[in-house]
From TrEMBL:
Its EC number is 2.7.7.65. Residues 88-140 form the PAC domain. It comes from the Bacteria. Residues 13-89 form the PAS domain. One of its GO terms (molecular function) is diguanylate cyclase activity. It comes from Massilia eurypsychrophila. One of its GO terms (biological process) is cell adhesion involved in single-species biofilm formation. Residues 179-316 form the GGDEF domain. This is diguanylate cyclase. NCBIfam families: GGDEF, sensory_box. It catalyses: 2 GTP = 3',3'-c-di-GMP + 2 diphosphate. SMART domains: GGDEF, PAC, PAS.
Length: 316
């Protein structure tokens, strides 16, 4: 019987375990709980962060090398979990010796003594920088998609979804603060005839230019210009009384007039015009936002019935 070519490695040999640990990308470490000092940290730490293993003496060295924005919450969490004897994980930014930072995931195991008290902490540090960058990119894309979901892709102003989201919020604020809330509903006059004459591509350009004028007219940061659909738009004007709302509507009509968009098939002139319904309310406990919107829609209909190219801010 021939002898084996190699002898089995005695796995009980501590040197073997150390070789295995130090050949991985994960960085092993051990802290003595009584003294709060490192009794071991893998040499891989120097390649990752630039700090030599000999410079990791106590938990203070670990804490000082955590990014200041992550330091307190990370230290507090790890200490609390360790005191309770709970294994845990923590993600944080570790400072490198040259002033940069690396994302670390620290996986911690609590070792108990014979009487059940905490004896030591052992764990592994993992470099998760690439994963974090990927996650950040995904979150950024999700935020961009969320913004796009609230924006009308044709006109680049807010869409119906945005208005439906913000309207009840501004209504509730106005009710609490007893400030007036105004809404302007706008409809482009004879837009079907515009499309029939100029074509839908030119019609889309017309919608974009009208939206631009309306958005410029509602110029405060809290004001919202949204496209409700088709050729209909809305202005949501928080903290705006009747006179100010009328002024905003007039300013929008003036800006649209300055755009001078030709409309050969209009029944009120040779340029694109709009009809507007305007309403203002200080919401009370008995008021209903849907009823208020219906009132403004009726005023828009009145403006159109009265000949278009005008503003209606009162009931007939």
């Amino acid at each position: 019987m021939t002898a084996p070519l190699t002898s089995p490695i005695p796995l009980a040999d501590p040197g073997v375990y150390r070789t295995l640990l130090e050949s991985t990308r994960a960085i092993p470490w051990r802290i003595d709980w009584a003294t709060m000092r490192f009794t071991y940290i893998g040499p891989q730490i120097e390649e990752l962060l630039g700090w030599s293993p000999s410079s990791w003496l106590s938990v203070n060295d670990w804490a000082d090398r955590i990014h200041e924005e992550d330091r307190q919450k990370t230290v507090d969490y790890c200490v609390a979990q360790s005191q309770q004897g709970i294994d845990h994980e923590a993600d944080y930014r570790a400072l490198t010796r040259d002033g940069d930072h690396v994302w670390i995931r620290d996986v911690v195991h609590v070792v108990r003594g014979e009487v059940g008290s905490v004896d030591s902490l052992v764990g592994f540090m993992f470099d998760i920088t690439a994963r974090k960058h990927s996650e950040d990119k995904i979150l950024q894309l999700q935020r961009e998609l969320e913004v796009l979901s609230y924006r009308d892709s044709l006109t680049n102003v807010a869409n119906r979804r945005m208005f439906d989201t913000l309207y009840p919020v501004e209504w509730a604020k106005a009710r609490v603060t007893a400030e007036p809330l105004s809404i302007v509903v706008i409809d482009i006059d004879y837009f079907k005839q515009y499309n029939d004459h100029y074509g839908h591509m030119q019609g889309d350009e017309c919608l974009r230019r009208v939206a631009q004028a309306l958005d410029a007219g509602a110029s405060r940061s809290r004001d919202l210009c949204a496209r409700l659909g088709g050729e209909e738009f809305v202005l949501l004007l928080p903290a705006t009384d009747e006179e100010a709302a009328r002024n905003v509507a007039e300013r929008c009509r003036k800006l649209l007039g300055q755009s001078a968009i030709p409309h050969a098939r209009s029944g009120v002139g040779r340029l694109v015009t709009v009809s507007m319904g305007v309403g203002t309310i200080v919401p009370g406990a008995e008021d209903n936002p849907d009823v208020f919107m219906d009132r403004i829609d009726r005023r828009l209909y009145q403006a159109k019935s009265a000949g278009r190219d005008r503003i209606c801010d009162a009931e007939a």
